[in-house]
What does this fold into?
Amino acid sequence: MKKTKILDQAGFTRTVNRLAHEVVERNKGAEKVALVGIRTRGDYLARRIAGKIESIEGRKIDVGTLDITLYRDDLRGRLEQPHLKRTDILFDVGGKVIVLVDDVLFTGRTVRSALNALMDLGRPTSIQLLVLIDRGHRELPIKADFAGKNVPTSAKQEVRVLMSEVDEEDAVYLIDEDRES
Amino acid sequence: MKLQTRHLLGLEGMSREDLTLILDTAVSFKEVLERPIKKVPPLQGKTIVNLFFESSTRTRISFELAERRLSADVVNFAAAGSSVSKGETLKDTARNIEAMKIDMVVIRHASPGAAHFLSRVVKANVINAGDGAHEHPTQGLLDMFTLREKFGRLEGIRVCIVGDILHSRVARSNIHGLRAMGAEVSVCGPATLIPRGIEQLGVKVYHRLEDVIPHTDVLNVLRIQLERQESGFFPSLREYHRYFGVTKERVAQAGHAITIMHPGPINRDVELSADLADGEHSVILEQVTNGVAVRMAVLYLLGSR
It folds into this structure.
């Protein structure tokens, strides 16, 4: 197994700051903007970006957490049943510009699930997609509005995002599995 | 995380891990019930049949709501006016329904063991919604869920089940589930309505409410059925109320707050006084709300595996 660091602590922080600025620029401020992170690391990422937007704009930004387990298209046939956690969105998504946040954009299936889950909670004015890493290989017509870093990968590689809230550091690794599969 | 069982037939013998998984999963579903759109898709394309050989209003509605909120297709079957009244056996009824490609069966039946039997003859997942005086596992689970929400834990809390323990599947499921989670359980009722040897399940037996009230945090009051009086288990409802009716005055003797539960439907001022049923320490309506969340958790865990 080969592990390559593609984003270190300083790079991570700069990327998060840039993404926050891009969200503010695109939406001409952050008046109607609310962030929703997909459990687990998308949630921490959403909180960090919201914190940054708050310091740029000087206003409180709503942040929520989405658990997409019930909306997955691979629930059946999985050996391990994913552990169901809570969706915690305490504000009304109706009339808001929702920035959906996830750590890695890959096939697009997670985002598809998240969109369905969000639509069941209300009717946002619009939904934008923000990801830290876009690694390609989409299986659905989904595209990120804000991407921290585009990383060309092969399907056999794995992108691992670490965040200090749950891991020992802020970093992104590209992992090459040696095994044939 | 996965349940160790394909069916939910009873809480007897269920592991602490499985019980905890169901209760934890129900927390997530309770959040779903608070949303404007109370529907999620995990059982889309699954067909569930509710086989009710015994009349029931709230359990059937609760199961049906839970099934629909998980996006399952639901078929209801009531014994009255069906092929059962034409003499068809349970096995034939089940086989025929299975031939229609059913994924899950929820069964309520007057005979203890009906759900076990069904689980042996059909391939679908079977959920027991009450079999005679044996078990009513989802009621036990929703009572546990309600208590865990109220006290933050089940370990060490003291629960007394009051009334007709002999004929009660609710009592049995509560005893098995609560004991497995480390709660202290006692029962209280007239000697004629307490099954002999129930101490072997690890419960204390009382025959006077006055004796148990100072030593319990919760009274789970069971419905007293009029038919039992006719068959001589107690002399009259008036007398039952006088000795075993849970009233404000009796509860006040505890010196601490006592949480009041009832599986419904209530005979007001017979087994439980109206002021307590509607009082600040009553969680009776929360039990009903939690029933839907707990049933969603069970259906989801069994149906999506």
User: Anything to note?
Assistant: Chain B touches chain A at residues 1-2, 24-25, 27-28, 31-32, 35-37, 39-42, 300-301, 304-305 (CB under 8 Å). The two ends of chain B are 10 Å apart (CA to CA). The CA atoms of residues 246 and 272 of chain B lie 5 Å apart. Chain B has twelve helices and nine strands.
